[in-house]
Amino acid sequence: MMNKKGLSFLEHWAEGYSALGFILGFIIALLLRNEYTLYVISSVGGIVAGRTLWLARKHPIFPYYLVSIATLIGFLLGALVGSNATLKIIFLLAIVSAYLSHFIHRKGYI
After folding, report:
1. pTM over 0.70
2. What pLDDT tens digit does each residue of the chain (110 aa) get?
């Protein structure tokens, strides 16, 4: 949808939500200073991402990956408090929990 003032937000919603997810992920990670809380939030975020990707399976899937990855990158940049091992654990927890959530929905357990 083009209007005289520029592109409509409906055509480029993924970029806006990606930026919002990046900022929110960064702020949430900055507010949480405990490593174990970061692990839990990363796992919950992965579960939500897996469910979102499952629900969006009949739509173009790339925008949903873009929003999920931008949020994860913002969260990882905000969590640069600890060592590299902490960041690797947060990343792996998010990816594994997203995969498990998607797998559970695909098999019909939920």
Report:
1. yes
2. 555 555 665 667 888 889 999 999 999 988 988 888 889 999 999 998 888 888 888 888 888 888 889 998 999 888 887 678 888 888 899 999 999 998 888 888 77
**Structural domain includes residue 27:** yes
Distance between CA atoms of 73 and 6, rounded to whole angstroms?
29
What is the domain extent for residue 32?
22-107
Residue 73 within any structural domain of the chain: yes
